[in-house]
Amino acid sequence: MENGKLSDCIIKMPIIPTFDPIEELNMYTSLGSLHTFARGSKIVSPGIPFSNVIFLISGQLDVSMVSRNGEEKYLLEVFKNGIAVALNQNDDHEFQITAVKDCTVCFFSLDIMIAILSQNTRLFKNFILNLIQKTQYFMYQSRDLYQSRPSARVFSFLYNLCLTKGNRVNDYYELAVENVSQKTIAKITGTHPVTVCKLFTYLSKEGIIKKNRKVIKVYDLNKLCNLIANEELTY
């Protein structure tokens, strides 16, 4: 493999569904079609055929699925230099991609993307690893939705977030609320927002967390870990 061995292809599993950027695609935007979208715009809508690889040059996108009864299932966020693949040539797909912020995107047709990747082995590897990363993330999430109680999913999310993203301050961890609001946790874990609110109230009463407008402070990881184990065993 160019510029790397097979052993270098490490798939990092994110806690929050944001995936590795592919900056090198900036070199090829002249081969695609540039578009700007205002915040709130629908770039891909359910039931409307769309067949492009979307490369985000600036801004932020929200990717979800919307069922026929209008129920929306959050999937992931796309940030600068991230990709979203929307190859839906029929009119019965459920995918929706929304501009969370004002954004500039480049649409690559499938043929153009294949031509680009065939000329750049390193870019091809990074593109494939990005898709594998997304696939594995949603495989694990599907397993958790099937096997775990909502409480176990929320507790596990907080636990893993402390270990990977938490800021250690003396004897506790701090998590920025702007990155992990209760609404965000509900979307990521597939849990009803009311349930997340009740679980946070319980954790606060147990002295495990304290939350204000800016941060969540997690004081007892061991107790949180025990709660996860107990919830999984009683399922």
TrEMBL record:
Pfam families: cNMP_binding (PF00027), HTH_Crp_2 (PF13545). Coiled coil: none annotated. Residues 148-222 form the HTH crp-type domain. SUPFAM superfamilies: cAMP-binding domain-like, Winged helix' DNA-binding domain. Keywords: DNA-binding, Transcription, Transcription regulation. SMART domains: HTH_CRP. The keyword DNA-binding applies. InterPro entries: cNMP-bd_dom (IPR000595), cNMP-bd_dom_sf (IPR018490), HTH_CRP (IPR012318), RmlC-like_jellyroll (IPR014710), WH-like_DNA-bd_sf (IPR036388), WH_DNA-bd_sf (IPR036390). This is Crp/Fnr family transcriptional regulator. It comes from Dehalobacter restrictus (strain DSM 9455 / PER-K23). The lineage of its organism: Bacteria, Bacillati, Bacillota, Clostridia, Eubacteriales.
